[in-house]
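Subject: design request, 131 residues
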């Protein structure tokens, strides 16, 4: 039963066995890596799925550390909001630079990055005692 639920609900990501440059040398110029059925990993068990938890923990830890400082901005909710926005958009932009998308890909990617930063902010506020 659990296997059926996993197959129906979890998207799968291709696992890259070798880097793209080495594959292009072997397969010829312009060839794309092929993902076979046995190299697909469910997205929730992929190590990249930890990014959300790691960024949430980093922002919460930074906010708690900043609260020790004797400045008023350290206890404000704007500190974790700005930190979430900065970190998630930094990750988004670095990923987009690596993928080299079209202009529509940039717009769509930045919009999703903005939404992800708000989700991380909500997670940080959810593990806060200020609500």
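Subject: RE: design request

Done. Sequence follows.
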């Amino acid at each position: 039963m659990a296997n059926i639920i996993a197959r129906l609900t979890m998207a799968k990501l291709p696992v890259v066995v070798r880097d793209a440059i080495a594959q292009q040398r072997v397969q010829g110029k312009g060839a794309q890596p092929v993902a076979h059925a046995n190299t697909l990993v469910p997205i929730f068990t992929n190590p990249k799925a930890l990014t959300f938890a790691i960024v949430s923990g980093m922002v919460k830890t930074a906010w708690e550390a900043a609260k020790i400082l004797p400045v008023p901005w350290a206890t404000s909710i704007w500190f974790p909001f700005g930190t979430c926005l900065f970190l998630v958009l930094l990750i988004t932009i670095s990923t987009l630079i690596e993928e080299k998308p079209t202009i529509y890909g940039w717009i769509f990617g930045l919009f999703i990055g903005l939404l992800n930063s708000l989700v991380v902010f909500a997670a940080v506020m959810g593990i806060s005692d200020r609500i």
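The CA atoms of residues 56 and 120 lie 6 Å apart.
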